[in-house]
Amino acid sequence: MSEERNSASISGSGSIAGGSYNRVSISGSGKVTGELVAEALRISGSAKLMGPTRVGKIVASGSASFFAAVVAEEMKISGSAKIEGQADVKELKCSGSLAVKGNVASEYVKISGALRVDGDVEADIFKASGGFRIEGLLSADRIEILVGGSCRASEIGGEEIVVRRGGFRPIGVILDGLMKMLMGGARGLNSREIEGDDIYLEDTTADIVRGKRVKIGPACHIGVVEYEETLEVESSARVDKQKKL
Fold this sequence. Notes:
Elements lengths: L7 E3 L2 E4 L2 E8 L2 E4 L3 E8 L2 E4 L3 E8 L2 E4 L3 E8 L2 E4 L3 E8 L2 E4 L3 E2 L2 E4 L2 E4 L3 E8 L2 E17 L2 E16 L7 H11 L4 E14 L2 E13 L4 E13 L4 E7 L1
């Protein structure tokens, strides 16, 4: 993006028109009324972006509301954010809370706070040590989950899937409240179907687990495990039915 574009800043209460900018900073209560194209967007106050947003880097430590699709190279959320449309973000990191109405497409996702997606999440690498609720499919080449709260996805698919106990534990009343509001439910991973090549699970409840090499660890309750090569089940885990393909 061109370095010759103007920059814009809102430190009190105000609004700017959509358009092309170098950098946009909102530290007060601000609104962008149209489509925004920028090199960088920093939000430390309260911001409403009414049109599509196409930004190189987004950093939100305050409260951000995106009312249309978001496209970014990098997005870091340490406050709270919601996206009413799709999110196409090459690198997504969330240590606060993020709610997305559409689908999420990314190369790298790291969640240490709370994530809620009403659609699908597709990534190369997905890492979570907080809580998440994905109403559609979670799909990634590698999925690493340290269960730190309620983690739910309708379906999970990947080449390598590793789920372990532990991870982030909410600290503070505000973040704890956000986690419960966004996630709901008890601690642990819950999914209707989990499918991959190499699967290791702890603290997981699922109707069906299907893979080539499968290990079912502690605190798991699985309805059916279908495996091609090997299956190991820890003594404290519960598997109702095993089937070799």
